[in-house]
Specification:
The protein is α+β, with helices and mostly antiparallel strands. It has one domain. The protein contains three helices and seven strands; from the N terminus they run αββββααβββ. Strands 1-2-4-7 form a four-stranded mixed sheet. A three-stranded antiparallel sheet has the order 3-6-5. Helix 1 crosses helix 3. The longest helix is centred in the N-terminal third of the chain and has 23 residues. The protein is globular and about 45 Å long. The two termini are 23 Å apart. InterPro entries: DUF5594 (IPR040953).
């Protein structure tokens, strides 16, 4: 992906993904956009939170606090910047809650309790399908 596309993705699309993620996950979750460093370290969305403690409404299921990184496939990002990309992206944003819910089961992450089975989890090579 060229530098202009990377910058556009980070400034136009990532803030909306971050906002939608925060809205879905609610209080106590931290969401941070991490800029592109190299092909091996692309733009990431870091989602973290302290695990709920005993006595909380939701006790943690897994031993580690929420520490998830999301990355998207370069070709998928490029498609967002072509004809019809904005409409596709809006559909994706509408589907984000269901996508986040589905991803957690695949990687032993429990969003409700802010916990996970591994110290760090990567959801990589994501697409923008609704």
């Amino acid at each position: 992906m060229n530098p202009e596309q990377t910058l556009r993705f980070e400034t136009e699309f990532m803030p909306r993904i971050a906002e939608r993620t925060m809205r879905f996950l609610g209080r106590g979750v931290r969401v941070e956009i991490l800029s592109y460093e190299s092909a091996a370290v692309p733009t990431r969305l870091h989602v973290s939170a302290d695990a709920h403690q005993e006595g909380d409404e939701h006790q943690h299921v897994y031993p580690y606090p929420l520490n998830v990184f999301l990355t998207w496939d370069d070709e998928e990002i490029e498609r967002l910047m072509s004809v019809g990309g904005e409409a596709r992206f809006l559909r994706y944003l509408d589907a984000m809650a269901a996508k986040l819910d589905a991803w957690q089961g695949a990687r032993d992450v429990d969003l409700a309790t802010r916990s996970q089975a591994q110290p760090s989890v990567l959801f990589g090579g994501l697409d923008f399908e609704a």
